Amino acid sequence: MKKLLSVLLASLMVISLVACAQQTAPATTEAAAESVETAVESEAPAGPRTVRVGVSIYTFDDAFMTLYRNELTRYFESKNNDQVTYEVTMQDGKNDQAEQTNQIDNFIAQGYDVLILNLVQSTSAATVMDKCAAAGIPVVFINREPSESDMQSHNTGDYAGKFTYVGADARQSGRFQGELIADLENKGDLNGDGKLQYVMIEGDPENVDAQYRTEFSISQYKEKTGNEVECLDDQVGNWQRAEGQRLAANALTQYGDQIEVIFCNNDDMAMGAKVAIEAAGRKINENIYLVGVDALAEAVEAVIAGEMTGTVLNDHNGQSHAAVDCAIAAANGEALELYNWVDYVKVTPENASQYK
Ligand code: BGC
Question: What is the pTM of this model?
Answer without folding.
Answer: 0.86
